[in-house]
Amino acid sequence: MLGHMKFFSLVLTAGLASAQISLSSSCIDSVKGLLTSPDAACMNPAALLSFVVGTERSVPNTVNKWLTGLCSKGTCSDASLEAMVANVTTGCSDDLAGIGAPEDIASTVLDIVKQTYPTARQVACLKDDTAGQLCATEMLTNLETIVGQLTLDDLSFFNLFADVQKLLSSGISTFACTSCTKEAFTIARENFPDLVSQVNDQAIDLCGVSFIDGNLADNVSQTATDGLFTAVVANDVQNGALMRSARVGSILGVVALGLLLVV
Question: What is the mean predicted confidence (pLDDT) over 109-128?
């Protein structure tokens, strides 16, 4: 299992190492546009502004605000997902070509997004009822007790690598084998049985056989709202915040490109 965790750490650090890459202005502008685009409103991207251009500096608090809004808004429609993928792949076409992405990357990514988005939303919206907070928030809070306060600087290659090493040396089972992660594993395996079942043995080695028994995890509930998201016209963001949101665009662009590279 240690070998798998080392591989995970390498993949994770390599993916976010692209934060060191300078994105083209068209790519940054395209991703910035998602912050105020009606197509992306179902993803609640505006919640991230408080972290980058405001006074909020807590990663767990920011993620909690973002996911709380996302989970309460209803799901993104296929049309919205198509528009978001088209926005990123079109605006970042030169960047993608520069890293060797295939010409049909847009259609490939769109297929994957449509397949995985419902499951990803389910997992992101899980709540630990005992702790009274979203599982993602709880995990990030627990992570901070191991690696220290998380900031934007943790997106750098060397800081991220150091954080992963601290996590591995602290005893990964304590962090990974929780009711929240069990429920997330169960959801993922129900929706992608062929893929997730490939790691059954590793999951048993790490967390025990009960981790994959398919039973509902204790005290974990689903907060995702059913139905499609209904767009609401929001007030314009102040000019100063929009100018500084270039940094948000860069970060989101890096994440978007990282996801495209996975395929």
Answer: 96
